[in-house]
Every structure is written in structure tokens, then in C-alpha cells.
Amino acid sequence: MEFLENPEIALENIVDGIRLDDTRLAKMKTAYSAITSLLANDKEFFAQFGNKIEVYAQGSASIGTTIKPTDDDFDLDIVLHIDYDYAKFSPAILYNNLVRVFNVSSRYRDKFEKKNRCVRINYKDDFHMDILPGFSDKSTDETAIRVPDREVRGWSLSNPKGYTSWFLSRASQIIAMEDFSFRKSSLDTKEFEKCNDKPLKDAVMVLKMFRNEYFRNDEGNITPSIILTTLAGLSYRGTGTILGTLKQFIKYVREQSDCGIIKLENPSLKSENLSERWEANPVIYNNFLGFLDSLEDKIADLEETTNDFSLRESVIKSMVNQVNYSRGVEHFSARSQQYRSRNDEILLELAKPKTELHKPYYSE
């Protein structure tokens, strides 16, 4: 089966097959625009800030690592960033006004729920939107914000825009395409080469899929996406393949864990300790190391399945699950058909006579 001839190509097509489709993206953009408009027209509070309000995506939506859900809904995290001194307002004023806007709206009154630092809008389809409000804190960083935190009854510091910039900068540092000596597909592999910043993004998506599978029956100990994404970004050394990037991830984590529990800071906010939960509960950290061991075993299995496509299929499915595997096969088949059709068109075009002199000669 062509899909399995090269595990790198298989993983790449699975990742492409689980990206959010145009329909979901359109729904997200519509919801995003509607929220922006609603807040801009709130004369009681938000309108006073005029063009100082910026609404933008954060998290996986901002760095391109959101994966299509297999059963549960997916989330769109957005930031309501007000470029105004946070010290002039209390956290409660900002948060309560955001709640008020949705509570008085007939469109959103039955859709929103309060969270610790954000307000969530639950849509009837398969996604929800978390809206994180905040004022600028330029004394910390040009893009840093202070957000209301109901749990601590005060402001918490965050820098989602800074994190996005850091990750995309890391992802753009491709320096080499690697050859793992796998059998090449009978299709032209150039059709499947990475471009721009895909290798790191693709690897993060594979990590998240495998994380979901590994912790399927142990969600209380699941490794958060922010930790996987940050470690992947820190470990990235410019390889041009998913498997190469995953190997760098494993090597980096092994090195960092030699001296005990990894101390992981937010690259865009040094005061934020992303590994705080690990330090509080070492069992969760040990479960992460178990996940790492399993990932290393899976990659080794893939490299040893040169001629055993049945085993290779089993290994990949165990990493990404059956639903995502099927999506990858479907995506590969569609691209293969497009590739063959394009080649057929080129051959037909080449066969056409270009001038009178090139027309075939037929005897009378």
C-alpha cells in the first residue's frame, strides 16, 4: 500500500487529514467576528476603548496545531486585549462587564458560562470559544497582559501573543531535509515535502494525538498541550521531518531530565512555571516519562518495519488512533488522485501538436 511505503509520508498525510476543514474554519471565523462586533458596540464599557481593543487567537489556533476532534468538541481560545493601563481598573470590573455583555444578549445568554479567567461560549456545533480579557502590562513586556483571575481574586500575568511569536520563530528555523532510508513512495515524494514551518507544527500535532491515546484511560494525569508544545519548540533544531523532530524532542527531554524533574519556564513569560504541577505531584511527571518511553518505542518500531506493512499500520494506528489513521488514508488517496490527474493532463498537453509542423502526418 503506497500510504505505508514511507512512514514519514503516512504521518504527514494523517496530520494534513486532521487539520480543521474549511467548514469548521468558516464557523470559527464567523463566531470570532460576531464576538468582536458585539464588544465593539458595547457603549456601557468596552466602546470607551475604541481602537485600543485587539482581539486575536491564542494557543493552538494561533500557532496552527489545532487538530480535528474525533469525538469531543474543540476549542478556539481568543484574547480580548485592551491596550490600556490595567492599574486603572479592578479585575472584577473587566470580568463582570464581559459577563454582562453576554448576559444581556439574546444570542449568547444561554450559551455562555463563567470560567476562572475567561468566559466560554458553547456553540451548538462541535466547538466552544474561550474569551480571555486583559489589559496591557508593558512594564513586564510589550505584549504582556494582566487578566482577571477569580481564583486568586486579582490579576494574573499572561503573554499569549509573545508565546505565539516565540513558537512560530522556532518553527521557521528549518535547515535540513532528512533521509531516514525508508522505502520511498512510488509517487513523487516531492509532492509531500514540507514547506515553511510545517515540521515542528506537524510533530506537535502527532505528539498531541499520541498523548490523547496514551492517556485515554488516565485523563487525570494527561500532559498538557502547552508543555508538549513548549518542549517541542525548545528541542527543535531545524530538521525537516516529523520523525526527526520527534527524535529531537525525545533527546532533549532525556537530557533535561537527567537532574530530576524538568523545570520548564514559559519562554515568553519567565515568571510562569509550566512544570509547577509536576513539582507538586511527581507521579504526574513519571507518567509523562512513561509517555516518552512509549513514544521512543513507537518510533523505533516504525524504523524496523521496512517490509512489514501490517506491523507498520498497527504501530501508526496505536499512535494516532483508528479515526485519524483513516483520515490520513483518505487525504493521501485524494492527493494521489490529484497528482495522477495532473500528470495525465501534462502528458496530454505534451502530446498535442504545438504548430502545423508538429501535426502527425497521415497519408491520403
Summarize the structure.
The chain has about 375 residues and is of the alpha+beta class. The chain has helices at about 5-20, 20-40, 60-65, 90-105, 160-170, 200-215, 225-235, 240-255, 275-280, 280-305, 310-320, 320-350; strands spanning about 55-60, 75-85, 110-115, 120, 125-135, 145-150, 155-160, 265, 270-275.
Secondary structure: helix percent:
40-55%
Which descriptor suits the 3D outline? globular
Termini Cα gap: 49 Å
The helix count comes to 12
Spans where pLDDT lies below 50 across 5 or more residues: 178-195, 353-364
Overall mean pLDDT stands at 86
Beta strands, count = 9
Per-chain topology:
Layout: H1 7-18, H2 22-40, E1 53-58, H3 60-63, E2 74-85, H4 91-103, E3 112-114, E4 119-122, E5 127-136, E6 145-149, E7 154-158, H5 160-171, H6 198-214, H7 225-235, H8 242-256, E8 265-266, E9 269-273, H9 276-280, H10 282-303, H11 309-320, H12 322-351
